[in-house]
Model the fold of this input.
Amino acid sequence: MQFGQIEQAWRRGWMRGIGMLSAGETVAELPRWNERPQAVLYMRTQGIGDVILATGTLRAMALAQPSIALDVLTTAQASPVLERNPYVRRVHVLPRTFLGALEVARTIRREKYDVVIDGKITRGASFIRSPALTLASRAPYRIGVGGGNHPLVFNVCVDRFDRSTTHMVEGSAALATPFGVDLPATDLRPEIFLSEQETKSADEVWSASAGHAEIHRERWLINISAGAAPRRWPNDRWIALSAHLRALSPEATIIVVGSVADWSSVCDVASRGGAVAAPTPRLRDVLALVGTSTHVVTADTSITHAASAFRIPTVVLIQQGLTQWLPWHTPHSAAYWSGSTIESLSIASACDALDGLLQCSHAM
Done:
């Protein structure tokens, strides 16, 4: 037996053991939601963008079954997305350390959840962390995507996500079907809730960046950061794209943002591209700027999905074939790159995408 086969057999045995030790039936009928209040835990311990895209699913479940109390388990980086969300009762944060994860597992156990949902839909047939947390919850109903070893852990399985034909929003929303959600008839839009003060503060940043009266002025937000180095476009090309936008829209207010680690690059792109650099030390700061903009330009990252949550027309620099990550039901124009890194994306291609979004915006 080869090493890969041994590993697969071990993982299958691990998941079978998890399923046997978990509460509830091996294959469960759906609970009768209206008989009594149900405590539900939705686990989504992935990136910021994944959590943004899941907000429509959370809303759909909560509205379909008002008797449920819906909690979310996610990462510290993504948890700010759910601040002020009226459909989420409580957010548990999963630490990176093993001891921290054990403490969260104990907390989940004490909550006595009736239903646990594994929100990760883009995995292979074997995994470890989610089944362990599912077991810790002792929830009698365990909802997840089907296929592979998944039915060994989950006793309510939904259709497996097909990334070649399905957008991430729709893939996530399949997990809402056990709650009686009619997906074709349901608004699945992502949603982020800003406070009045957050909106006011963001407006003040825009006004200060404009330098004078901002009446009817377009607000363009350019995000140069990306979560992974292969998706990080070089500064000189961002500068050229920003300068191209400035030439097309001389009266626009253009703000450049990025991660704290990219602050020097943010300042470089802004100063040489005819824009203004704005510090965004907290995730909520940049979300508020997205929500108060009129247009967004970004690499393929969570800012793309934040823009779709606010219905902001977007230019996205994205790898060929990743259409499942495009803005959801939001006006957009894509500049596609091929190969292993964004280095293959030319300035001309990005400018063409920006021109296309401008033409569509002016035609509306």
Summary: The mean pLDDT is 90. The chain has eleven helices and twelve strands.
